[in-house]
C-alpha cells in the first residue's frame, strides 16, 4: 500500500511541477524508460529459463487477443451508451492503453475523438498503475495483466513485476509486445469504415 502512496505522490508532484514550472527534459523520460526496461530484462533473464518461457504456450497469444477483444467490446458498449459513431468508440478502445499513438492516429480523422483517444488510453494506464495491486487480490494475477493493455511491456511492467512477481513479468511483457504489434494496424483499420 505504501508503494501506491509513493506513486500517487510522485504523479501529483509531477503534475504540479509541470503546471507551475515547465522544465525541459528533452528525451530523458525515454532514456529512463529504456533503462527501466533493461533492468526488468536483466531480472527476467535471471529468473527464467527457456523451458519456462515455453510454458506460456497458448496463454502468450490468448491473453493479448482476449484483451483486444474485450477492449473492442468495451468500445462497442461505450459507443452505444454515449451515442457516438461505432468507429470512434472502437478506434479509441483498440488503442489498448497506447495513448501516444492512438490519440494522433485518430486525430488525423477528428481532433475531438483524437483527444478522447488520448485521454481514454492515458486513463487506462493510470488506472492500471493504481488498481493492478488491488485486482490481483480478486483474480489470477496473470489475467489481471489484461487491464494494462499494450502498456504492460513498458510503463506498467514495473508495477506488475513488483506486485505480481517475476513470474508475471514475462507474461506481461509478451502481452504488451503482442498488443503493441497489433494496435498500429487495428486502429487505422477501424478508422477506414
Secondary structure blueprint with pairings:
Blueprint: H1 2-20, H2 28-47, H3 50-55, H4 59-82, H5 86-94, H6 99-107, H7 111-135, H8 141-144, H9 157-164, H10 166-191
Q: Major beta sheet, specifics?
A: none
Binned strand content: under 5%
Give the terminus-to-terminus CA distance.
45 Å
Give, in order, the helices and strands.
Answer: HHHHHHHHHH
Uncertain runs are none
* Broad shape: globular
Percent range for helical residues? over 70%
The number of helical segments is 10
Could you list some keywords that capture this structure?
193 residues; mainly alpha; 10 helices; globular
Can you describe what's shown?
With 193 residues, the protein is mostly helical. It has one domain (28-191). It contains 10 helices and no strands. Helix 2 packs across helix 10. The longest helix has 26 residues, at 166-191. It is globular.
Q: Can I get a quick summary?
A:
The protein contains 10 helices and no strands. 78% of the residues lie in helices and 0% in strands. It has one domain.
Amino acid at each position: 500500500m505504501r508503494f501506491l502512496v509513493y506513486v500517487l505522490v510522485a504523479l501529483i508532484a509531477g503534475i504540479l511541477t509541470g503546471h507551475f514550472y515547465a522544465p525541459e527534459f528533452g528525451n530523458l523520460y525515454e532514456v529512463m524508460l529504456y533503462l527501466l526496461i533493461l533492468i526488468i530484462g536483466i531480472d527476467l533473464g535471471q529468473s527464467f529459463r527457456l523451458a519456462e518461457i515455453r510454458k506460456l504456450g497458448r496463454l502468450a497469444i490468448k491473453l493479448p487477443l482476449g484483451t483486444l477483444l474485450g477492449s473492442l467490446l468495451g468500445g462497442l458498449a461505450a459507443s452505444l451508451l454515449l451515442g457516438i459513431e461505432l468507429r470512434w468508440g472502437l478506434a479509441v478502445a483498440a488503442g489498448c492503453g497506447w495513448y501516444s499513438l492512438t490519440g494522433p492516429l485518430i486525430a488525423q480523422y477528428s481532433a475531438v475523438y483524437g483527444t478522447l483517444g488520448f485521454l481514454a488510453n492515458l486513463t487506462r494506464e493510470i488506472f492500471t498503475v493504481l488498481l493492478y495491486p488491488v485486482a490481483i487480490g480478486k483474480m489470477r494475477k496473470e489475467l489481471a495483466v489484461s487491464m494494462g493493455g499494450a502498456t504492460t511491456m513498458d510503463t506498467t511492467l514495473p508495477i506488475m513485476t513488483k506486485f505480481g512477481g517475476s513470474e508475471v513479468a514475462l507474461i506481461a511483457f509478451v502481452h504488451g509486445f503482442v498488443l503493441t504489434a497489433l494496435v498500429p494496424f487495428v486502429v487505422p483499420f477501424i478508422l477506414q469504415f
